[in-house]
Amino acid sequence: ADGLFPYAKGSLTLWIRKDLNLDPAGEGLKVLLHPSVKKVSTANARMAPYGRAGEAALRQAGLYDAVKPRLVFADNIAQAAQFLQAGTAEAGLISYSQARNPALQQTGVAWKVPAGMYPPLVQAGVILKRTASPELARAFMAFLVGPEGQAILARHGFARP
After folding, report:
1. Strands 40-43, 91-95: parallel, antiparallel or unpaired by DSSP?
2. Given pLDDT bands bounded at 50, 70 and 90, which one contains residue 1?
3. Are 66 and 80 a contacting pair, CB within 8 Å?
4. Integer Cα distance of 148 and 44 in angstroms
């Protein structure tokens, strides 16, 4: 492999159903202690970086032990967002890019968790030495880290690494 190349940085986001009339922008993660929040969807911290970020943020806020009984663990961050869309959970710790999904925007409120509360969520790629098309792989890498690729990633909620 040619080594890792970072191409984007994600953001952990608290999503909560609009009909609960809670204010994550004002209360932050403490909103998860509200009695109307029965289940909180998140990715499994043992398997997913966003799960580790969610656990870190809850611990940093001193809320992990209080929220833990409400946590519903998904295999990955995409499944955590699906739990929210399906109504399995009233709130969730998901990626900002997923919180921008039109279905979730219609039914919920998203609040970006301050970046200092969790480890950086850097997305990276690698070009394998045995790739069939090394030139194509390098061209794709250049596209991802270049202005056009970065503009596309920014439109979908990612920051520069």
Report:
1. parallel
2. low
3. no
4. 33
Name the DSSP letter for residue 146: S
Token representation of residue 68: 């833990």
Q: Mind listing the pLDDT tens digit for each residue in 2-55?
A: 689 999 999 999 999 999 999 999 999 999 999 999 999 999 999 999 999 999
Q: Which tens digits make up the pLDDT trace of 100-110?
A: 999 999 999 99
Break the chain into its structural domains and give their ranges. 11-117
List, in sequence order, every residue forming a beta bridge with 92; answer none if it has no partner.
Answer: 15, 41
Architecture of the CATH domain 11-117: 3-Layer(aba) Sandwich (3.40)
Which residues sit opposite 8 in a β-bridge? 123
Radius of gyration, alpha carbons of the chain: 17
CA distance 149 to 86: 32
Identify which of 11, 15, 1, 31 has the alpha carbon closest to the alpha carbon of residue 110.
15
Judged on CB neighbours under 10 Å (0-12, 13-18, 19+), 42 is buried
